[in-house]
């Protein structure tokens, strides 16, 4: 294993097991742009490749075939293949390369494979023939396909109902770094940030390694955010548009949906999205919502009553939220905007939502901190529709052992103080929740905060508390 890789132990182990197996393997790796898919694959098995190619963005079949030919001839010194007329011929040439290779295990890597599947190109049919008719019966081929357009990987390969149905031997979804992995990454680069500042970076960028790579040592988190996003030559100033344009052909429609979701952080129903975005509620919206969820930009989640009509869609990509809150309509032209906006209502409002997203992205760590990782449970949210329309619960863990954890999430740069009025608010929430859901389970109120609560006569309303530190474990 490369010592340059942070985390990814499970994924790397799986790739290595597939390389050592006694059968041909067809592996699909997917995950959002900039998450480190290509880096992980190359660092793990790059020296074993006998062929690798990367699809071209926004290119037609002719350009894709020329690019494929250049990669084919670069990996082969014995025969210089002509440019294939179609994908069937191109894969036949690749099979010739496989047959002539003296490597014990023949690793073939297709990066950004969704870009190769251009309209009416026959690419998928040729890939199907190559795997089913040529290499699957062999015992020495490791075919790895990778792409940021996760919806293509899922719809065309994982959920394929034709010739590639159930042909994948392994599926790897590469997710963004956790807080723990971000901390390891910064330590590996000798960048000294405390956990509060690492969390601030995460709330802006998510756990995207490429974005984290722009953070330099010797600067605070706020200074780095200024330099990366608000300086005149900020390296990620245009990343947002490039991100969505690279993933979705009709990216304008996708942006209308995420823009609508950015305005209601607790989430919107499907009908609310259709109305707010100005789009119809037909099959086109279904595809957009599925694709955004596959790519990790949004999540669909049920209300506590589990009624399908109450399913909400919520924006959970920190970088997208950050863009809409601060970059899209940046009227300040202030290169020190992030530092100067500290403790402003706009910044504080964003921080509250961003910290909730951070918690949602670390549900596993929350369950482990509560000691309930081994207990079957479901995660949801709740908002009152009867007694108290303003009452809502940030996060609910409904456990099989008869306990319901209601989790209040608060972001602060110091210990959080529960006042008399806030205690009353919490009591009203619990009462409304119990009355409307008619639950017979025991309800435990918890608080997740950055540095914990101040102990006073009102803090005993909490059964337990979680700290930011718990999310790093």
Low-confidence stretches: none
Residue share in β-strands: 15-25%
The helicity comes to: 40-55%
SS element count, helices: 19
Give the number of DSSP strands. Answer: 12
Derived structural class: alpha/beta
* Radius of gyration based on Cα positions: 25 Å
Secondary structure: elements and pairs:
Blueprint: H1 9-20, E1 25-30, H2 37-45, E2 49-54, H3 61-74, H4 87-100, E3 106-111, H5 123-135, E4 141-147, H6 150-158, E5 170-173, H7 179-188, H8 195-205, H9 209-212, H10 221-230, H11 239-247, H12 251-262, H13 270-277, H14 283-294, E6 298-301, E7 312-315, H15 318-327, H16 337-340, H17 345-360, H18 363-370, E8 377-383, E9 392-399, E10 403-410, H19 420-437, E11 442-449, E12 464-467
Helix pairs in contact: 1-2, 3-4, 4-5, 6-14, 8-15, 8-17, 11-12, 12-13, 15-17
């Amino acid at each position: 294993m490369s010592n340059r890789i942070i985390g990814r132990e499970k994924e790397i182990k799986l790739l290595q097991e597939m390389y050592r197996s006694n059968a041909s393997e067809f592996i699909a790796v997917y995950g959002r742009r900039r998450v480190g898919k290509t880096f992980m694959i190359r660092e793990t098995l790059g020296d074993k490749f006998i062929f690798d190619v990367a699809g071209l963005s926004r290119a037609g079949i002719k350009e894709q075939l020329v690019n494929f030919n250049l990669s084919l001839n670069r990996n082969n010194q014995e025969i210089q293949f002509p440019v294939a007329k179609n994908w069937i011929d191109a894969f036949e040439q690749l099979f010739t390369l496989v047959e002539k290779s003296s490597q014990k295990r023949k690793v073939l890597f297709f990066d950004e494979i969704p870009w190769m599947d251009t309209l009416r190109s026959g690419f998928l049919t040729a890939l199907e023939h190559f795997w089913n008719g040529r290499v699957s019966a062999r015992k020495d081929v490791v075919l790895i396909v990778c792409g940021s357009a996760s919806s293509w990987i899922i719809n065309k390969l994982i959920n394929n109902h034709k010739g590639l149905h159930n042909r994948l031997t392994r599926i790897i979804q590469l997710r963004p770094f956790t807080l723990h992995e971000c901390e390891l990454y910064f330590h590996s680069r000798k960048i000294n940030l405390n956990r509060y500042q690492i969390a601030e970076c995460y709330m802006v960028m998510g756990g995207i390694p490429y974005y984290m790579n722009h953070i330099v040592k010797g600067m605070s988190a706020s200074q780095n955010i200024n330099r990366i996003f608000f300086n005149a030559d900020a390296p990620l100033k245009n990343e947002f548009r490039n991100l969505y344009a690279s993933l979705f052909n009709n990216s304008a429609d996708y942006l209308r949906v995420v823009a609508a979701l950015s305005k209601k952080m607790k989430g919107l129903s499907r009908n609310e999205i259709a109305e707010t975005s100005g789009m119809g509620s037909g099959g086109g919206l279904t595809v957009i919502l599925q694709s955004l969820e596959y790519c990790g930009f949004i999540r669909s989640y049920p209300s506590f009553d589990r009624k399908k009509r109450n399913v909400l869609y919520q924006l959970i990509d920190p970088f997208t939220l950050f863009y809409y809150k601060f970059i899209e309509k940046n009227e300040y032209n202030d290169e020190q905007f992030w530092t100067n906006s500290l403790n402003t209502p706009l910044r504080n409002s964003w921080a509250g939502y961003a910290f909730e997203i951070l918690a949602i992205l670390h549900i596993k760590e929350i369950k482990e901190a509560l000691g309930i990782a081994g207990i079957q449970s479901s995660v949801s949210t709740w908002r009152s529709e009867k007694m108290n329309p303003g009452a809502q619960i940030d996060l609910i863990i409904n456990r099989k052992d008869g306990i319901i954890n209601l989790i209040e999430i608060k972001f602060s740069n110091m210990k959080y103080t529960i006042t008399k009025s806030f205690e009353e608010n919490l009591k009203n929430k619990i009462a409304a929740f119990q009355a409307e859901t008619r639950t017979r389970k025991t309800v435990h109120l918890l608080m997740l905060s950055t540095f914990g609560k101040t102990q006073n006569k009102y803090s005993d309303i909490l059964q337990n508390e979680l700290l930011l530190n718990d999310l790093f474990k």
